[in-house]
Amino acid sequence: MIFEKIGLIDSSFQYQSDMTVVTKGNRIVYIGSEKPSEEITREGGPVYDGTGKVLLPGFYNAHGHSPMCLMRGYGENLPLDEWLNNRIFPFEAKLYRKGVYWSTLLTMAESIRYGIVSTSDMYMFCDDMIRSISESGMKSNICHSVTNFTGAAPEKNPSFKNMKDLILMYDGFEDGRIHTDACLHAEYTNDEQTVRAVAEVAREFGVPIQVHVSETEKETRECMERHGGRTPVKYLSDMGFFDSPVTAAHCVWLNDEDRQILAEGKATVAVNATSNLKLGSGICDTPKLLKAGVSLALGTDSVASNNNLDFFEEMKLFALLEKIKGGADTIVRPEDVLYAATRAGALSQGREDCGLIQEGFKADLIVVDADVPNMQPVHSMLNNLVYSASGKDVRLTMVDGKVLYQDGEYTTIDLEKVMTETDNARKKILNSLNR
């Protein structure tokens, strides 16, 4: 595709106006203010008039649970432990493969609509999730969530076996669109032998780890009581977790030592601002993490605790929440926000050639309409993108050079059928719960 007369966010996260960008296959092959040569534009595909539009790297959602769209609005106004134990876990016990397939596909449709091109996804029924993700054209770093409440040896734990099998079967699937990670649900849902075993699997296969960390004060306090005063971050570090790249979701209740461990381990913290607020978990101290040198990416968590995947909402909250405390040291620049939403998320997934508008990089791109009332006038396009834009301003989403959504139309998803089948699954599960 040839994008002409379009503004863009360049690889330094600055705004450039009236640019041309050419994609061929799954790559960006030209970026410039001059007309590209005929050799570059030959067979470059359709021409897109970018007047009044802005081209951004696609968003990388660093933490999600896609099938949980079945539970959107189901467990409202509850703290995390009650939400999980009284609403979510009983519902999840009734999940089935077909329901997971359709609900994942609905989440892919919502993601595409809001400019998300890839998600770090932690859940169950991963074969069915991968089928949905594959059909949608999206990218994903997917992992099977490991829990162990019985004390059984990891090799006899079905969730641990499923995690390993997933890595063996699917890592690099669909020409690299789909990667598989090791996974620990959390410290509080596993025993020490399982934690060590997950860390060893990551080292053995050379894959990243996804994990929930210090989401609530209660979780952190009880971990310290169980493990001789060690916080979840310190405990995981002692188990060898940070020998591998880690995406640590939430990280709301950290101390200075935790932040140092995360920085030295080159972990990425997935900040889930909306979910943490909704569940009353607290606010991730992003300025302290940035000051410590920790990489920050953005996550939505599931729509059961969000309740949507509008990444512009996540960017705005990420930028604003720490301002509650006041003071110049709480300022997060728009460039930092856009970096966290794109490049940092791509790097957390091990996708070195993604997350930037740069020649040679994968063509994971979104077009945002700036010629709408909420985006005008423009004193700073960066400020408008972070504070004024909405997911509904996304006009086009491209993954690996393929347009998946444009002006209300999906190219890979039958939205009406997907919504109908997902609601049928919701009704089936609720009927089973009410028996």
UniProtKB/TrEMBL annotation:
Signal peptide: none annotated. InterPro entries: Amidohydro-rel, Metal-dep_hydrolase_composite, Metal_Hydrolase, MTA/SAH_deaminase. It comes from the Bacteria. Keywords: Hydrolase. One of its GO terms (molecular function) is hydrolase activity, acting on carbon-nitrogen (but not peptide) bonds. The keyword Hydrolase applies. Residues 54-403 form the Amidohydrolase-related domain. PANTHER family: AMIDOHYDROLASE-RELATED DOMAIN-CONTAINING PROTEIN, AMINOHYDROLASE SSNA-RELATED. This is Amidohydrolase. It comes from Mogibacterium kristiansenii.
